[in-house]
Write a structure and sequence with these properties.
Layout lengths: L10 H16 L4 H16 L5 E10 L2 E11 L5 E7 L6 H10 L6 E6 L2 E6 L2 E7 L3 H13 L3 H34 L1 H17 L6 H20 L6 H4 L1 H14 L5 H5 L3 H12 L4 H16 L4 H6 L7 H19 L9 E4 L6 H14 L3 H8 E5 L2 H19 L8 E3 L16 H11 L3 E6 L27 H12 L11 H12 L4 E8 L9 H10 L2 E6 L12 H4 L8 E8 L4
Parallel strand pairs: 3-4, 7-8, 7-10, 8-9, 10-11
Antiparallel strand pairs: 1-2, 2-3, 4-5, 5-6, 11-13, 12-13
Helix pairs in contact: 1-2, 5-6, 5-7, 5-11, 6-9, 7-9, 7-17, 12-17, 14-15, 15-17, 19-20, 19-21
Length: 588
Amino acid sequence: MPVLNLKPSHKPIRSYYAALDEYAQLGVTHETAVQTAFQDLLTACGRQFEWTLVPQYPIKRPKQQPLRVDGALVDQFNLARAFWEAKDSQDNLKKEVQKKFKVGYPKDNIIFQQPDRAMLYQDGKLVMDADLTDKQQLVDVVRVFLEYRPPAIDQWEKAAEEFGDRVKDHATALLELIHKEAKTNKRFIDAFADFVQLCRQAINPNLSEPAVEEMLIQHLLTERIFRSVFNNPDFAQRNIIAVEIEKVINALTAKSFSRTHFLSSLDRFYRAIEETAATIDDFAQKQDFLNTVYEKFFQGFSVKVADTHGIVYTPQPIVNFMVKSVEDILQQEFGKSLVDEGVHILDPFVGTGNFIIRVMREITEIQKSALPHKYKHELHCNEVMLLPYYIASMNIEHEYFEQTGNYQAFEGICLVDTFEDQRIEQLGLFTPENMKRVERQRQSDIYVVIGNPPYNVGQLNENDNNKNRRYRNKNKTGIDDRVSATYTKASTATNKNALSDPYVKAIRWASDRIGQEGIVAFVTNNSFLDQIAFDGMRQYLEQDFDQIYVFDLGGNIRKNPKLSGTTHNVFGIQVGVSVNIFVRKMEE
């Protein structure tokens, strides 16, 4: 059980009383002022557990506006561990507590606090009524508040700590099994060979066998989570890609391998995930939790693949800002809206679906009746990695269910490499339904391209075997050919290697994809703003677009080592970041 290191003599306690004394001397008693003293105390204490205090934390209620508590302490898995509601000294705290509970405030671990009093409820019961003018009582109530662990969370903490390495061990063991069966199991040899061929035709003609092996491993280790946590028991039979992978898995397990037996030592870990997710009522928060589980555990055995694709998930405030900005520009510059028929929207690097889900919510807020048509015909996204593709599919489908009350498979998602410029007839052998989706997307006039492209620029060691893919063809229409013919050719720099960064290709690709008019909204590395290698790119952006909005968020740790990646960079990465919105209008 984690223990809070806090004594009456410690600085957070001293600072709390000092702040209240200062407010008292100024005659300030209103809630929004005096609550900052306790907020600072919780923030300081929460850091001991790597928790973050989120002010005005939203709590969803069925068919009602969400509640907002004054703060929640959230852990690294985006789980809310403790809630806080502040009142000023004039309020009758007991009556205020009952009011809050009647409208749906949580009862599992919440503290109601005035400058001189705190009432702490856990598991629906009042466990402490503390006099905060007494330093020891203040310490005691904060300690009980932060050290509380409901059974599901306690189990989750222990399982997460124990099973981080075990997931990697299972991945290694599965890889050894695959290699063994590839020598002796003819059914598996044939099924695996067919699947490799299909993947190369659909995703990347240079896709290596180890990359396909990782797809099988990811599927085996996570399929239970998709079935149970997402309450989707038919997942492996309903998802068009999972169906293909199951054929290979069945061949792998046909002789002597038992999937259930092999994964049995991870059973407690899976149950901990399932039970923890069950404590979360808000599906968006459940998505955040599972995204973090994916990043911390299941991505752990695919570090090089993750690095090659530049996996960084976009903070929700940035996603919200970008979607709102696109809607505003559509209205002001084009007299259109995201809800309008004919406005096709594409996220070419969908990850786990955050941007598409936020677009769906925006559409619902503007005109709920527009969502079914938009969902079926005009929302598009691509993903090249298997697990994010699975998660995005279910996240988007569940969001549609939440908004409409009806389940409908999302046909706008493709397992495909956005940068791949193959002709559709070359792709025909891969899952027909996936290829139909790819072709439908290609035939659509995309008006808005939005998302978070890959951000990295290659590898440090040629032997790493995770070099970024080159996209060239004999017709000089591959994305690398397009970058070379435009951004690279126009650059005056001697070293132009930075133009190989996937985010540069993404901007070039999106610039070509929207046609005569439309909007490109990407959050990217910000190096193109001022570095010499990008002078040709800046020249072309000025030519290609009528309006350019850039919000430079800074955060380049490499330029300024004094910066901290977690506090000065919105992604917690080394390179700087910017939000970029490019607008092209048809000539009148």
